[in-house]
Design a protein that fits this description.
The complex is a heterodimer. By secondary structure, chain A is an alpha/beta fold. Chain A has a single domain, classed as Rossmann fold. Helix content of chain A is 40%, strand content 13%. Chain A is built from six helices and five strands. In chain A, helix 3 links the parallel strand 3 and strand 4. In chain A, helix 1 runs antiparallel to helix 5. Chain A starts with a helix and ends with a helix. Chain B is mainly alpha-helical. The chains are: A alpha/beta, B mainly alpha. At the A-B interface, helix 1, strand 2 and helix 5 of A face helix 2 of B.
């Protein structure tokens, strides 16, 4: 069992989802894949498929259209999974918070584990946030091994329980 | 079935995933170094597979589970048959059946990514299978037998010397089979961005881990077939395997992805021309 727990931390697969971002944070997330920062040396791969992913990296304020897509992507990920909200927009909605179409932050829709602030967030902060998320992934992995799954219907209680 | 055979089969089944995983890890490390990065540790594929086995089981269609395990069984069987030094044509048919199960598993899910990935995988199979058959026929024409045990015992010269163009054709077929650029049409190995993951999009968790292990067996099988071309000397066999696999990784990094409309005619034309040139040379030598 400890083999699987160490492997969860050593092989986290990422999916990046853009919920209406200006693309500044997206570019910084993708910059992490380039040879300058190279997150593949930690075993992190940017898979484009929620079915293959452990970490959901969300940029952008969520708006009333793509909140359904965000919930859909979150639902498709198998447990254990963590969510990282990137940038001022992802964490709270940023300066766009009071706009009519903006929901205002990723944690209004799905439970978020790590908040990475910045506008745009630096690649170093993003990598730092992902590494903190790995610790939370290991804890959730232990719960999955015992058969405890969190489902989105229990999102509100899950947010309160964190 | 002598004890040597039993030991060979057990070694093939147990050691192949370890060797295949290490070769895959080296593949990623060499690719990263060629791209100017550090790259993951060499044991990374093992971490990936163990992590996948620890994920929740989510299936789109129950046929996927059956097809994933059948693909694994077919690949294990090809490695076992290679270890038993059995008939090349039998090995080829088992390989073909395994590939068909992977395609059926992808067709069982209704997402456009896996549907188009399955059709592209069928076209890739259509492209490389005739090339592999031509290589096996060339081996038969040169050595007089399809059985590996007879080839090894009766033919005392490296096959590479008399069948060099057929080795190039085999290398070409393996670029398509291993889904390396320029022919990573049905699923891109490193980039994860051709049709998302093409044939393997709708698999997740433990079933993706099973498919990954099948790919390790497939890698060992491919290296084993390349090793057949210099069966007389273990050192040169190792050199041939290393050079061939490094060539595949290099081609993967140098080229961009092409379309099936390029792959099918060019692979067939080039493969047929080189095969017939080699056949002609075999007959010219015999006369």
């Amino acid at each position: 069992m400890s083999l699987i727990s160490t492997s969860r931390v050593k092989s986290p697969w990422l999916i990046h989802f853009d919920c209406g971002s200006c693309n500044g944070c997206d570019i910084e997330v993708l910059a992490c894949l380039t040879p300058v920062y190279d997150i593949e040396r930690f075993g992190i791969i940017n898979v484009g498929n929620p079915k293959h992913a452990d970490i959901l990296v969300v940029t952008g304020t969520v708006n009333h259209r793509n909140k359904k897509a965000l919930k859909n992507v979150y639902d498709q990920m198998p447990e254990p999974k963590v969510v990282v909200a990137i940038g001022a927009c992802g964490t709270t909605g940023g300066i766009f918070r009071d706009a009519y179409n903006v929901v205002g932050g990723v944690d209004q829709i799905i439970p978020v584990d790590v908040y990475v602030s910045g506008c745009a967030a630096k690649p170093e902060s993003i990598i730092d946030g992902v590494v903190i998320a790995l610790g939370k992934l290991a804890e959730k992995g232990k719960k999955v091994d015992q058969g405890i799954f969190e489902r989105l219907e229990k999102t509100q209680s899950a947010i309160k329980a964190r | 079935m002598s004890t040597v055979d039993v030991i060979a089969v057990i070694a093939a089944v147990l050691l192949s995933p370890l060797i295949g995983g290490l070769v895959t890890g080296l593949d990623r490390k060499v690719t990263a170094r060629l791209q100017g990065r550090y790259g993951p540790p060499i044991l990374q594929p093992f971490y990936d597979v163990f992590k996948l086995f620890g994920k929740e089981r989510m299936v789109v269609n129950y046929w996927q589970i059956f097809c994933a395990y059948m693909y694994l069984a077919a690949n294990i069987l090809t490695v076992v048959l290679l270890a038993l030094q059995s008939d090349l044509l039998l090995i080829f048919f088992v390989l073909a059946v395994g590939g068909v199960f992977l395609v059926i598993g992808a067709l069982a899910a209704e997402s456009p990514y896996s549907q188009i990935g399955a059709q592209r995988e069928l076209i890739q199979m259509l492209t490389y299978e005739p090339l592999i058959i031509l290589v096996f026929v060339g081996i038969y024409l040169e050595t007089g037998s399809f059985k590996i045990s007879q080839i090894i015992s009766s033919y005392h010269q490296p096959l590479l010397i008399s069948l060099p163009l057929l080795f190039v054709v085999l290398g070409y077929a393996f670029v398509i089979k291993l889904r390396k650029s320029p022919f990573d049409l049905s699923s891109s190995h490193h980039g994860h961005q051709e049709l998302v993951k093409g044939v393997m999009t709708e698999y997740s968790g433990p079933y993706l881990g099973v498919i990954e292990i099948s790919h390790w067996y497939e890698t060992v099988f491919i290296l084993g077939l390349c090793a057949l071309f210099w069966h007389t000397n273990y050192l040169w066999m190792a050199v041939l395997i290393v050079v061939t696999y490094f060539g595949e990784v290099l081609v993967d990094n140098i080229t961009a992805r092409l379309t099936w409309r390029w792959m099918l005619p060019h692979a067939w034309t080039g493969g047929l021309l080189m095969s017939f040139a080699n056949y002609f040379w075999i007959y010219a030598k015999l006369k």
